[in-house]
TrEMBL record:
It comes from Micrurus lemniscatus lemniscatus. This is Reverse transcriptase domain-containing protein. InterPro entries: DNA/RNA_pol_sf, RT_dom. Residues 63-218 form the Reverse transcriptase domain. Coiled coil: none annotated.
Length: 218
């Protein structure tokens, strides 16, 4: 089936320079109390010194949009392994990797994500209720409960439920395919290249018992 295409006015909005208001709102949305990335600067640093840092930070972000190059520090991450509760910790698959990213990178990415989220509801099927504004995963739970109650009241009818889970879904995303879909939907070249830029040439060091491994390309 043909993919829906975004209107031209939305395309232009997605590609516009980042504004000071967007940066201010992004700082307000950041989760405080989180471990910092490799540069050691938590998001509280950018909030505390917003008056001093906002202009140079805004300039850096708009340079990324124009030149399609990100600062070297945005390509680096630390990965820490968190054990899954109630599992055999001798098995590596029972650990959840958490990437510690630099705060300025996360602020930039959150601005792009916020721009996109304003319009996602117009393009994503209404059955998808997770991770979208004004949609709640509990709506799907309610549908399941209603279905079970209906068939319990009508035992003469037959039904089946299937639960599917994409194992390591994010890890298995084909980024070339994802970017091509954005292009097919009419997203502008500048926005697509910004998305591509923040995922390109990434590396990480794994933190184990307080020690770091060599950098690994990811």
């Amino acid at each position: 089936a043909d993919l829906p295409r975004i209107p031209k006015d939305i395309e232009k909005m997605l590609e516009a320079n980042i504004t000071m208001m967007e940066l201010t709102e992004a700082l307000k949305r950041q989760n405080k109390g989180k471990a910092p990335g490799p540069d050691g600067l938590p998001v509280e640093f950018y909030i505390k010194f917003e008056e001093i840092l906002s202009i140079p930070l805004l300039e850096v972000m708009n340079e990324v949009l124009i030149k399609k190059e990100i600062p070297q520090t945005w390509t680096e991450a630390y990965i820490t392994l968190i054990p899954k509760e109630g599992t055999d910790q001798q098995q590596i698959r029972n650990y959840r990797p958490i990437s510690l990213l630099n705060s300025d990178y996360k602020i930039f990415a959150s601005i792009l994500a916020e721009r996109l989220k304003r319009y996602l509801n117009n393009f994503i099927h209404p059955d998808q209720n997770g991770f979208l504004p004004k949609r709640q995963i509990r709506d799907n739970i309610r549908i399941i409960l209603d279905t079970l109650e209906y068939y319990e009241a009508h035992p003469e009818k037959q039904m089946a439920l299937m639960f599917l889970d994409a194992q390591k879904a994010f890890d298995n995303v084909n980024w070339r395919f994802m970017l091509s879909q954005l292009e097919q939907m009419g997203f502008g070249k500048k926005f697509i290249q910004a998305i591509e830029t923040i995922y390109n040439k990434q590396s990480a060091k794994v933190m184990i018992n307080g020690e770091l491994t060599e950098a690994i390309d990811i």
